[in-house]
Design brief:
Distance between the termini: 26 Å
Helix content: 40-55%
Number of strands: 0
Order of helices and strands: HHHHH
Length: 106
């Protein structure tokens, strides 16, 4: 496991930020199937989900928790499918609001 860069270990805040951005980019890149780069982020990002996520992912991530619990308990969906749907939606949101560190100005 790689050592986390911290100010306590003597790193500057810029080094810590660069390390966290590198980690963010690596974890988003690990999402499968991969999400494309978002080069022209609209002011209203809500429609991006329908553009980049599957119908199943949208249905899951827009469901009430109470409904998901029932579906999970009944075996209609698996916890893995639910987790992957929320991970993909979170990764999409991150890509929409925060471009990769190679193009950001942090």
């Amino acid at each position: 496991m790689a050592t986390t860069v911290t100010t306590a270990s003597g790193a500057t805040w810029q080094e810590v930020a660069a390390d966290r951005q590198k980690h963010r980019d690596a974890t988003i890149a690990a999402i499968a199937p991969p999400l494309p780069e978002i080069t022209d982020t609209p002011l209203n990002t809500i429609p991006l989900a329908k553009k980049y996520l599957t119908a199943e992912e949208i249905k899951i991530t827009e469901s009430y928790v109470e409904d998901l619990v029932v579906q999970l308990a009944n075996g209609e969906i698996s916890s893995t499918i639910v987790i992957k749907a929320f991970l993909r939606r979170a990764a999409l949101a991150q890509k929409a609001v925060c471009p990769s560190s190679s193009t950001s100005n942090y």
